[in-house]
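Two proteins were folded this term; both appear here.
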Amino acid sequence: MSSPSAVVLLSGGLDSATCLAMARQRGFRTLALSFRYGQRHAAELAAAARVAAALGADRHQIVDIDLRAFGGSALTADIPVPKDRGGAALAEGVPITYVPARNTIFLAFALALAEVEGAGDIFIGVNALDYSGYPDCRPQFIDAFTALANLATKAATEDGCRLAIHAPLLAMRKAEIILAGRALGIDYAMTLSCYDPSADGLACGRCDACQLRRKGFIDAGLPDPTRYAV
């Protein structure tokens, strides 16, 4: 009897790599899905390819969409990426690195792939504790999209497939995520979390994502394998 299939959203960062490893541990045949969406940190796609190969994804697909057409984010427009923000600033409001509707768009593509492939499960590495305050990383969003998936697909309405959105990192601290991933054998040196990496893929060390990542390794009591520019 073949293993069930799951679509795993894979950015190439620490969280999505852990999510892929968790899906594999649960026995799913994993279809990793990444996006070239006009992001300034497109070096993450090379990291996603490394992660997919190292963790044994059954397939890795990169889809091209261009969110630069809308802009509105430091990741998709000519807007500086915030650097060196303190802990209080990180915890306040939605930062300019938020990409409007990004997780909604990504999950919609994942839902389409899942329906075509006959997969009843989708994994996404969102986190509602140590994160940048994005509204589409909250449990309410995951619950709402799950309800949508089961209302708006032939798989659910005619074929009797109950579609599930898994967000296993949702209530975990960054240190807990790192420790869980290490227990699953992940080499985090192959991942990239930075919003503004250099041309050769060095993490800036100063953006929100780098700061959260650094703190996660410190709190986990583990050496940080990330290659930082500073």
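Next, the second protein.
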Amino acid sequence: MRVGLLTTSFPRYEGDIPGNFVLGFARALLAEGHQVHVLAPEPAAAEPPPDFSPLALSWVPYLRPRALERTFYGAGVPDNLRRDPLAFLGLAPFSLNLAAHAARRVSAWDALVSHWALPCALVAGSLRGARPHLAVLHSADVSLLERLPGRRALARRVLHGASDLLFSSRDLRGRFVRLLDPLERAEHGARMHVCAMGIDAAQAPLTDEARAALRAGLGLHRFTLLSVSRLVPIKGLVHAIEAMAELPDAELVIAGDGPERAALEQKARARAARVRFVGEVRGAEKARWFAAADVFVMPSTPRASGRTEGAPTSLLEAMQAGLPVIASRVGGTPDLVEPGVSGALVSPGRGGEIARAARELEQAPAQRRRMGAQARKTAQEYEWSTLGPHFSRLLTGAERS
């Protein structure tokens, strides 16, 4: 099957973080024998598309001069729009150009996949004809739909323009369903599925001796909490920093970059908190931090706009590495973390709860090992090799039959 995949985010090079799970999704379809052609926003840097063969990738230009293309990538569309008024300039031109590029190619496609409803699902829905269209919705999609005028009409257009919808968490599915009329909920419920985005296959865990050497090489000599994320407000890292005031024998490592980094560093200094910022990590370097840490912390906090976490890939990667998790009880996190089994769920915005959960795990190494083993087991269910066949069946309609 020849699949056209429309997205507002895609890696600009191998190992790039924005849209990396969309690349994973595309590769999962490739592994099922499909051909995939991705249409994604052109990055501001004037470089040719990366070679992800056999996947085909075309950048969609949307503003000139190219330096004005500020809408996508970076901190992500919601935070780009919040911080840079010029980012709004690209919204309408990209939607129009994406539609034009897709219209020229759709005759060569047997099916469509869209990541992010606005505009990708709307564009795919308007062009698909009788073709299957799997619309994948993420957190920013649903929170935006909830706020827009005419949100019910837009939600209906997304619903009726797709053969199936896939949400990254139960929370997002429920919020989308509430935008529909009761009869539509009943009639189309079987077409709305839930699954977190996937992760690559697990690496073999380190021996105790290798892990001790790794920790020494990284300069870790205390109980270590790790966070891996973009440094943006929704990640709630300020509350993890607040928790460190109650954990004098522990250290927090924050891996990632973004517009909040300077403010977070200032917060850590003001609190005299033991926090290390290591910047953005990828590939083998990220795997080393996962292997060296004791606990993964994800203190996400919902935004006033209603935006919350979906099911972050970094959470599943940490679980896959055998780390117990301390995470806020928001969005898709409760779908993945079972309290007392694979980690602890805390109230968003409560640094004290993070500190208490960390202290309990610090004092119970046997419990940490048990939780880590269960976390790894859960994460393995979300490896791309496991999810790919399900996504393929959604495209062919076999998943509903």
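Residues 82 and 246 are 33 Å apart (CA to CA). The chain has a mean pLDDT of 94. These notes refer to the second protein only.
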